[in-house]
Every structure is written in structure tokens, then in C-alpha cells.
Amino acid sequence: MKTLRKIADVVQEAVSLIPSPCDRGNEICIGDDGTPTSEIDKVAENAVLRFIESEGLKINILSEEIGFVDNGGSEVLVLDPIDGTSNSVAEIPFYSISMAVGKDSIGGMHTAFLRNLATGDEYWAYKGKGAYYNGREIRVREPDLSNLFAMIYMGNAAPDEAFRMAKNVKTSRSMGCASLEMALLAMGNADLYYMNTVRYSRGVRAVDIAASTLILREAGGEVYDLGGNPLDMPLDNRSHASFVACSGKEVYNHVMRPYIKEHGSARFAIYANEFIEHAEEYVRRAYKALEGENVALDTSAAKLMGMEGIPLDDIEADIVIVVGGDGTILRAFQHTDAAVIGINAGGVGFLAEIEPDEIEDSIARIRRGEYTVEKRSKLKTWYNNEYLADAVNETVIHTDSVAKIRQFRIYVNEHLATEVRADGVIVSTTTGSTCYAMSLGSPITDPLVEAFLIVPMAAFKFASRPFVVPSTAKITIEAVLDKGCLIVIDGQHEYTMSGGTYVEFSKADDYAKFIKLDKDFYSHVRDKLVNAI
Predict the structure, then answer these.
(1) Of the listed 326, 390, 423, 490, which one is catalytic?
(2) Is 429 in the same domain as 506?
(3) Exposed, middle or buried, 405 (CB in 10 Å: 0-12/13-18/19+)?
(4) For the CA atoms of the chain, what is the radius of gyration?
(5) In 3D, which of 96, 189, 74, 85 has the Cα closest to residue 143?
(6) pLDDT value at position 265?
(7) Which residues are CB-contacts of 20 (< 8 A; sequence separation ≥ 6)?
(8) Fewest CB atoms within 10 A around its CB: which of 61, 170, 339, 382?
(9) Which residues of the chain have a pLDDT value below 50?
(10) What's the burial of 312, exposed, middle or buried (CB within 10 Å: 0-12/13-18/19+)?
(11) Listed residue (198, 102, 117) closest to 153, CA to CA
(12) Residue 140 domain-assigned?
């Protein structure tokens, strides 16, 4: 502990030499996690590295910026040189150095030390020997469920659940420094810290919470993954997690009740395209990997297993595992509101998150809660004042006769945007931007962008180009000529459209929920589209 305190001293001195708070935020390089490193982070980390080298300490280092450093030691110093960088730049006195010592994982830490670098306040813990604040032993407080004080991550990757939770507790704050927020729980000044993100890469890493997790647990609290299991994480910068830190399971169950079921874990369903090669093998492997969970089989998946199944529409599931290609995934969304993750048994499988050789490992991660739920806007389609269906990818209006062109007027918020002669028009979500719309020259669009794409199909005029409009817009497409068209939603539903009528589109009330592991959209584009061509 004396050594950790000396390290904090040299960091505090080094940081104090930065000329101004604004200079602290200067981005000077890219860190081990692929994100920009600010000057204060690098100055603090360099101070630690120099101290360890000058003292000849045989301890390995895992740090936020430099990654893993092998110094030939048997244990690892898990280091976040500066937690709360933005606070330090803004001169908000709530940022820290976070250090923990141990091996293997967060659960293997035996010593932890935090210092608020603005105030000098210190928190520390030895495994099995309690937690301390400025020399005084600290404990979590007994919760009053009607009067909960919560710290909640509300950054730009926060899900809707974070804001709903803020409304369901008595008091909430977003402080911008996870280590010190968890330390407030350990002191009994708050009841929970909720950190959930729609982007896996924005979740916490071991370096962020290794020290604060030990301090909180030694103070009588706990840190859970979103499935209600005690959180543990490997000592690397590649693994990320969302979590709930709280004074105990009573608080966890209370605040998470809207998001988990009474049995404490997710209800699973398996849905499959029984006609795809290897579908039976993949269904059996997925079913075995879920052994011990509450699992229902759709009729198609059950048929492959020689069992009785239930139509997906009738299954109450939290997570649906889909075996098939992109079409199977889109079809699943037509029958469930649950979160969906696909096992690629088709061709490109752009919407699928799991490749066949990853089935067991990926499902194990889902069972541990090591995933995020990415919510994507869907498209609502109306014809003749009748609601048809929601589209995850796109709704296509096209001629009902081969080689016959049609004329369309396209309105955005009742304003005439353009009039085109074409084989048809696609209205696509950003999820669908990598599908049919892309083949017609529409831009590839990050699916978290709140927009819709309007794309003419084989337009007669070269100047008839795609439009990108806000997802809040009302889109109307009128078939001008007295000639028929077809309306096709996600390739699953087909409706006839008479000439002289119109179709209306708007953002759907709910979202398509995709289970995401650690594969980002842009790596999918590279691997599935660019490198596949």
C-alpha cells in the first residue's frame, strides 16, 4: 500500500506541472484500446512507468493507454492513470488514479487504492480485511428502496433504459468517474451505480474498475453483470462490460426488475431456417450450449431436433437465437419483439453476429451477460390508411410488370421532394443501407444514425439520386400512373398497390433489438462486404 501511495504522489506531482486545465485534454496519441489519449492520461501513465522502472519493481502492468507491460513479475498492477479526464479538464474536482494488484482477473485482485487527485481523498482495501476512506473503515448502507440514490451513466452511448431508470429512483447523478462513483457506494453515500451502453466498445474494462470493485466488495457491496451474476473480467483491454454496482442483491433486484425476469436470467428461444445446410448441426450446438437455461424451440428448430416446438409468435422470450441468413433474421423480427442474435448459416450473413466456429463461446458470453443490446429504428408502412407491417431493412415499391416503368411523386413532410420515373422506390432504414439500397447506389450508413434513405430503382433520369431524411420525417410515395405496383416489406410480406394511390412511411414505435458482442459495424462492412467482393 505504501508503494501505491508513492505512485499516486508522483502522478499528482506530474499532473500539477501541466500548464493549464485545457492542456490536460490535448489529444496526443492513440491508446491501446484504439481511442485518443489525452495529455493528462499520458503524463500520469509515464510517471507511473518511470517510478516502477526506477524502483526496480518486478510487477507487470496493465494500463489504459500503453496496454500490458511484462516486467517479469508474478502479479499485475492494473492501472487507470486518470479516471475522469473530462472532469479534470473542466476543473471539476472528481477524477482519480485507480490501482489494483493481483493476477488472472478482477476477482484475483487483493489490494486496491484510489486517490481523488483534486481533493487528495484516498480509498483503499485489502482482500478479506475491509475497505477504508482516509483511514476510516467504510461500509455500504442499508437500502431504502423508496429513496434510492443512483449514479447512472448517461453518456452518448447510454441506452433508453438508463433514462428510464433515472425516472424510477428518487435521486440520480451522472458524475463521469466510475471509480469514485463506486467509492461513494462503498462509503454509504449512494445505493447503486448503473453502467450500461449500447456500444460494446464503450463498456468498462478491467483497468476502469478493478480497484473500485475490490473496495466496494470489501465494504459489503457487490458488482453484477446485467444478468445478475457477480462480475469478473479478464486482465486485458479488449474485454468490455456493462454492469450494476450496488449495496446488495436486494437493490439489484429492485432496480433491474423492469429488465429481467423473476427467475433471474433471460428466457431464450431458438429459431431456424430448416432448409439451410448445417442448420440441424447449429441448432443442436446452440441448444446444448444453453443447457440449464430456460429455452424454447420454434417449430422449425424443433423439427430439426425431432422435438415438439412452439411458433415464435407464441414464445415469450428475452433473447432469440436465429440460425440462418439475413432473411431468416428479418423473418424472426416479424414474429418477436425480443432481442435477436444470428448464427450465420447463410451466405454473407451481414446481420449475423456469430459465425459457426464461435457458437459455444458466443453463447457462453451471452449467458454471462457480456453483451449489449443495440436498438435500431424500424420503418412503419401504411397503405390506404391501413397499417401493413414494420420493416427492419426496407419497404420496396416496384412495378408489378417486368420491364414496365412507373412514375412516382415523393413527399417528405408533405413537401414534394422529387418526381421520378423508375422501376420503383425503396424506403430503407439505416440497417437496410447495406442491403438492397446499397446495390442501387445508396450510401452505407451507420445503423445508429437516426435517418431513412429514399432510393429510386433504375431511375430514367441520371439526376434522380437517393435522399437521406431524418427518421422523424413522414414520407409519402404516390404512384402517379393508373398502373399497379407491389409493396414488399423486408422481403417477407407482399401487397398489391393500385395506380393513383400512395404509401406512407414513418418511424415505428418500437425498435429492432440486436444482441451485440464485440463486432462493430465497420469491421462487418470490411469483412462481409468490402473483402467479400
Answers:
(1) 326
(2) yes
(3) middle
(4) 27
(5) 189
(6) 58
(7) none
(8) 170
(9) 260-264
(10) buried
(11) 198
(12) no
On the CB side of 280, CA atoms within 13 Å amount to 6
Q: What is the pTM of this model?
A: 0.58
**Dihedral through CA 295, CA 300, CA 302, CA 307, nearest 10?**
150
Predicted pLDDT at 271: 97
At how many degrees (to 10) do helices 206-218 and 178-186 cross?
A: 10
CATH number at residue 81: 3.30.540.10
Domain range enclosing 353: 267-371+517-530
**What's residue 263's pLDDT?**
35
pLDDT at 458: 85
**Cβ count within 10 A of residue 19:** 8
Is residue 186 within 8 A of residue 219, CB to CB? The reply is: yes
Q: Are residue 99 and residue 157 in the same domain, yes or no?
A: no
Whether 326 is catalytic is yes
Does residue 429 sit within a domain?
yes
What 3-state class would DSSP assign to 379?
Answer: strand
pLDDT of res. 261 = 41
Q: Are residues 111 and 153 in the same domain?
A: no
| pLDDT of 262 | 35
